[in-house]
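User: Can you help me understand a structure? I only have the sequence.
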Amino acid sequence: MATNILFTSAEAAPFAKVGGMADVVGSLPKALRNLGADARVILPYYGFIDAVKYQIEPIFSFEFTRRTGTTDVYVFKTIYDGVPFYLVRGWPFFGDERETYTTWNNDVPRFLFFCQVAMAVAWELRGREAWFPDVFHINDWHTGLLPFLLNESRNEPVWSDVASILSIHNLAYQGEHVGGWLWQLGIPGRHHPELMRRGLTDNLLAMAIAYSDVVSTVSPRYATEIQYPYQGYGLDGLIRTRLDDLYGILNGLDVDFWNPATDKLLASNFDAENFPEQRIANKRQLQLDAGLEVRDGIPVIGVVSRLVEQKGFDLALPALRQLLSDSEVQFIALGSGDPNLDYEFWRLGKDFWWKAKVYQGYNAAIAQRIYAGSDMFLMPSHYEPCGTSQMIAMRYGSLPVVRETGGLADTVENYDDGPADQGTGFRFQWEEPAAVLGTLRWALYTYYNRPDAWQRMQRRAMQMDFSWDTSAQQYMDVYHKAILRRRGAGVS
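Assistant: Let's start by predicting it. Here is the structure, written out as tokens:
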């Protein structure tokens, strides 16, 4: 079955990236096209996107009338990595901003506008490029209005067969309390019985869950976790009504980009065969750049992360302080986010200046060098829908130390130091600093006392297949199910 898929998203790498959603939308369409699908992407044309760099050209414009007025919509296009990207601009919603997300009062009307315009652009593409989607692939709350708008258009023949699939990248962010904006735009009432019963008719992510033909999450474990109150964030009951249509599909990596054998930002390239000899140059360069003692035999713990509550660094900071106080270890981190965590990490770097370095903000070159030069990679997340950093770290030979949750549990096999001799990292379960400290001590013991086992773990980690191939085929199967269900079920 030939399939036309239109991804709608607030982010897509490399144009606009804040979190993991951008990586998915930036790389999954390419993998789908390799399987024969015609996958395309539509996203806002933010003011910071470089038209020259990405060869973005205007293709058409039209007037779009909403209850609040008429907006001139300008549509641009580029082909990136073989994938068509359509970028939408319309004053005052998108055009001169310097950040992907601004303020809540500004972002809600912007993304509601984007949802409405995405359907209009698809309609225009039908006439201008003889292309029309079989599936709208929705991503998080920013495009959560689209499944409802599609449902409201089912009586129009051109829309009746168009399916929708929602990908939940992070259930904690929902786009709630938007009823006033929806009323202002003249959006009809949401009379879905589950939304009404649960008081969720003004929650964009809840609307997407209720009205999408299929709901997916970015890892199998996360699909289970969000069915329960702790990680359901008030939507677990609604999600349990969609279990027949719920799929957990693990995110992949762009393995052509994340490749230590070809990465130009590294001091020395390496692969799963020659890393014992070639990888060490990256550790030395990392220590040198960080102003730390250059020593091959001292283990380096790395972090590349947003410093926010979700990531669990409130658990890790006391453990790291203890470890830096009493153990032979170095620590190098890159990240920023919550001001309190930013300060605590800065202070950690200052208090242990001779064995710890904290880079604040984000720098791609430093990130790559931490992946390639650290011995272990810390991700103590309270929850992690999928996570890609642990997969990148493994691909670059840094063994993850992770909490057993979401995609971390799905991708990191716990070390077994018995006869089985298996594992690709170290896992802990309890959300306590003592669990982080104990697991780091276990990793350090293994590093110092089982060097052969450590190297075998590194090789296994580097040989893991995190490409999009398997996941893309799973998405293709889900698309076909959604299309067949939509075309067989008629109006829902």
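Now, to help you interpret it: The chain is about 40% helix and 20% strand. The mean pLDDT is 95. Let me know which part you'd like to focus on.
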